[in-house]
Amino acid sequence: MTSPIPIRRQTAGLRVIAAATQIACSGGDDTGATEPVLDCMSAASALASELYDGPRECAIVLRLRPADLLATGFQVRCGPAQTLLEPAAREIAGGALGGAQPGLLLGDPQQLGAYLYYEPPGSSGSIVVISRRTGLPLFAAPLPGDPDAPAEILAPATWRAPPPLQQGCPAAEARPRAAGYDLEDGRALVAPEIDPIVAAVATTVVFVAYTWSGQLYDALLLRYPAAGAADQREWILAVQGGPWASAP
């Protein structure tokens, strides 16, 4: 697990974007350079408005292409804050799998911010991630173990197109604490594997949107063995955060 970076600075990401705007504006008459940065500010504000639309906790779940770490889709999952206990989480996980039995619990739910149930790829292979803070399924999918089998992600059921994430923004200062697992074998990922993905997402508005009016909690990274060649595993990243009044 990577070490958490101090993030109790509400406008940390905003300051990065604002500073970049000032640098871009210092060039004189050429205003074209400022447009992408202004687009980032607008996108961050729009996403923050969705995250903080009421007293609730939210997760942003992203799908990332392995070749260039660009997002291919995302979804926002929000719900009332709660402290979910393991028996209830396991029941929710079974529902997310359509009634199938969830696998073993990986990791420390308090550190991950989620209950991660894993059964290795095979006839009953599966992965389910349940938010410890809202009880919502953040990710659920069977793991058939057959590279020719079609990928079947059960949760989120739908994905949004990535343009609202405004990829290519100035990198956010605030980063969540992050941990991850390889779903091929259940191995815990190490910092050199996790850090590049977190750094790539830092150039979207995801982290900035959380710190616009609140705080980042944690990020859970999964190397998901999607259909196709073994080296074409997809990255799934679930980022959680919430308002300042909430306890991580």
Helix content: 25-40%
> End-to-end distance, in Å?
17 Å
Q: What would you call the shape?
A: globular
Largest sheet: 6 strands, mixed
Overall structural domain count = 1
**What are the segments in which pLDDT stays under 50 over at least 5 consecutive residues?**
2-29
Percent of residues in β-strands: 25-35%
The value of Rg in angstroms is 18 Å
Overall pLDDT score: 85
Order of helices and strands: HHEEHEHEEEEEHHEE
Count of helix runs? 6
| Structure classification | alpha+beta
How would you name the oligomeric state of the polypeptide chains in this document?
Answer: single chain
How many strands in all?
10
Side-by-side strand order of the widest sheet: 2-1-10-9-7-8
Describe the protein's architecture and organization.
Strand 4 and strand 5 form a beta hairpin. The protein has one domain. The protein starts with 11 loop residues before the first helix and ends in a 5-residue tail after the last strand. The protein has 6 helices and 10 strands, in the order H-H-E-E-H-E-H-E-E-E-E-E-H-H-E-E. The longest helix has 18 residues. With 248 residues, it is an alpha+beta fold. Helices cover 27% and strands 27% of the residues. It is globular and about 50 Å long. The strands form 2 sheets. A 6-stranded mixed beta sheet has the order 2-1-10-9-7-8. The N terminus is likely disordered.
